[in-house]
Amino acid sequence: MVQILAQNVNIAKLANVNFVSSIKNIRINMNDLQKSLSANAIFSGMCGLTLIAFHKSTANLFGLKDSTAFWITGIALIFFVFTLILEIVKRRPIPVLWIIIQDTLWVTGSIILLVYLPFGISNTGNIIIAVVALIVALIAFYQASALSQIDALSTSGNKLFRFERRVNASKQNVWKVISDVSSYHQVAPNIDDVKIISGEGEGMVRKCSHGKDSWTETCSMWVEERTYSFEVNTSAPDYPYPLKYLKGTWEVNEINNDTTKVIMLFEFTYKYKIYNVVLHPLLRDAFKKTAEELLNNWQNILEKK
After folding, report:
1. CB atoms within 10 A of CB 55
2. What architecture does CATH give domain 158-304?
3. pLDDT of 146-186, one tens digit each?
4. On the chain, which terminus has fewer CB atoms closer than 10 Å, C or N?
5. Every domain of the chain and the residues it spans
6. Which residues, at least 6 apart from 28, have a Cβ–Cβ distance to it below 8 Å?
C-alpha cells in the first residue's frame, strides 16, 4: 500500500515537473521569438523609411534613373513592419512561419540579382544588396531558431502538448471511460480501429489503425484510477506521422465528488529537426483540434450518464 502511494506521488510530481518545465521553456522561447521579430521590424522599418524618404538618392547610388521601384519597395516594407508588430503581440506560429518564408524569398531574390546582374546596378548598389540580404538571412535564421523551440521541454528538447478538461462526473466514472483503451477509436477522431494484441495494464500492446495505416503502442505506465501512458512504435512501416518518438499520458484528478479533471500530455520528437520549423506550426493546430474533439467526446459520454 505504501509503495503504491509513493508511486502515485512520484507520478504526480513527474507530471507537474514536466508541465512546469514546458511552460517555463515556452515563455523563454516566446521571448526569443519576440526579440527576433522586433529586430526584423526595426531593420525593415529603417530600410522602408529610407527608401521612401530618399528614393531618388538611392536610385542614383544604384546607378539607376527611375526611382519608382525604391519607394514602392519602401511602402511594402512598412506594411511588412505592421505584420511583424502584430505577431510580436500575438506570436502565432503559422504567421511567423510566413514571415520567415518572406525573408527567405527576399534573400533568394537578392542572390538572383547579384548572380545575373539584370538591371546594370552599380557596384555600390550590389554591395548594399548583399549586405541587406546577409542581415535579413541572419534575422530569418534567428526567427526560425526561436520558432523551432516553441512547445519544447528544456530538459529533453522534446515537444510537449498539454490538454485538460473539467468533467461533471466522479473520478471513478471518468477513469472507467478513459481507461477503456480498446474502445479508444470510438472517441479519437484520428483512429479508426483498436485491437489489444497482448497483456493488460503496464506492458499491454495494442494495435491502432487509420485508413490503410497501422502501428502498435505499448503501455509504459499504468496506475489504476490515476494515470496511464502509451508509447507509440513510430518505426512501423505504416506509421503515418512524421514523428521519431511519441508518448501519450492520460491522467484523472478529482476536484470534488462530482467533478474531475482529465489531463492529456503528449510528448514527441519529429523525425527531422527542420520539421520543428516547417511542420510544427501547421500540425500544432491540427493536434489541438484532434485533442479537443477527443475531450468533447469523452465529456459528452460522461455527462449524459
Report:
1. 19
2. 2-Layer Sandwich (3.30)
3. 999 999 987 888 999 999 999 999 999 999 999 999 999 99
4. N
5. 21-148, 158-304
6. 154
